[in-house]
Amino acid sequence: MPSIPIYAIPSEEARAAVGRLAERGAADLRGCEEEVRAIVDAVRRDGDDAIREMTRRFEGRILTSIEVGAQAIERAGDLVDGAVREAIDLAVDRVRSYHRRQVEPAWTYREGGVLLGQIVRAVRRVGVYAPGGTARYPSSVVMNAVPARVAGVEEILLATPSPTPEILYAARVAGVARVFDVGGAQAIAALACGTESVPQVDMIVGPGNRYVTAAKRAIFGETAIDMLAGPSEILIVADEGARPDVVAADLLAQAEHDEQSMAVLVTTDEQLARAAAEQVEIQLRDLPRQFIACKAIESRGAIFIVPSLEEAMNVADLVAPEHLLLAVAHPDRLLPSVRAAGAVFLGYHTPVVLGDYLAGPSHTLPTGGSARFSSPLGVHTFLTRTSVVRYNQEALRRDAPAVRTFAAVEGLDGHRRSLDLRIETPE
């Protein structure tokens, strides 16, 4: 089993390790972007034929039908265990309840003869991507489709390879209209460009591997995207009250997602650091996704021993993790100092897995350090805003001198004329 490295801050070795973690992100896409561009171009050119060919080449499957039939979606619930259905239903309820609080109303106000406002509308058609391959994620369907429905999106499409009954049931209860048996970069290209079978969408959301993420970057501009979401990440800030076995389990719960997942512990307690490192090795031995988690621990696993919780929060700020778990006695005291994290989990009794499945906020979160400047997926992701302006004649005359001044400074005489004609010959 790999040993998770332990560093003591403020050593130079520790600073270098923090720097490497902070620089992750877009560099993960290098090496696949050229291949992805070729996939996008092929789907744009050949449509369904390209989807079938790439599914055969990359997945070894022969697609007889790109779209999943409505009857298969409707009867999927009969094939799903009752406990699984209840869990999915609970997740839908929790996610819907949370995101209803994000609904953004239109607004107007009047000021000195001027009406100003904003129209808020949801985009019309959204494509949700749910990963396949090494695991199936009905939770991803819920976490992306439900906020879209709450926002008012008219039509939600789901692209996912070889959808299971659990995926199809989640799609139905989350409000998905149509499901397409397509995965990888070719799914993103199909949603962005449209094919004979797959309608073009206004926005694509949902996580995926680096090929999916690179495809989202390649098609941005033809359609909107939520974010460039990379492998799962966790950074735990822990004090002496945290349990080593629980901390190790939290690290591995995210490491098992992807070989490039990040699993980091920052603690003020050296004894906890060493015990947690030992627990990681022990728990890896019987983890079903051992190979993936081992690779993640080798590539982006680390434990940092720091002199204070203040320094621990400085490390967290530099790394800007997707998930930040404050496993400390008084997490509320640290919360105001959180400046960059996709989601924050407070206290010993709040594992990140609650957020993965049903706490309420969407689990589609900024990764790769992008939490410094971007936000989790939510109702706002699916909204467009249109400004509204209306002047009366008196307000027009009042503001005319300032407008003429701007037009003169910028050398745009047509702007001045557009104003003056209205004043000289009012309607």
Please characterize this protein's 3D structure.
The protein has 427 residues and is α/β, with parallel strands linked by helices. It is 46% helix and 16% strand. It has 17 helices and 14 strands. The strands form 3 sheets. The protein has a 6-stranded parallel β-sheet with strand order 1-11-10-9-12-13, with helices on both faces. A 5-stranded parallel β-sheet has the order 6-5-4-7-8, with helices on both faces. It has a 3-stranded antiparallel β-sheet with strand order 2-3-14. Strand 12, helix 14 (331-334) and strand 13 form a beta-alpha-beta unit. Helix 2 packs across helix 3, helix 2 (33-46) packs across helix 8 and helix 2 packs across helix 9 (210-219). The longest helix is centred in the first third of the chain and has 19 residues, at 82-100. The model has no long low-confidence stretch (mean pLDDT 95).
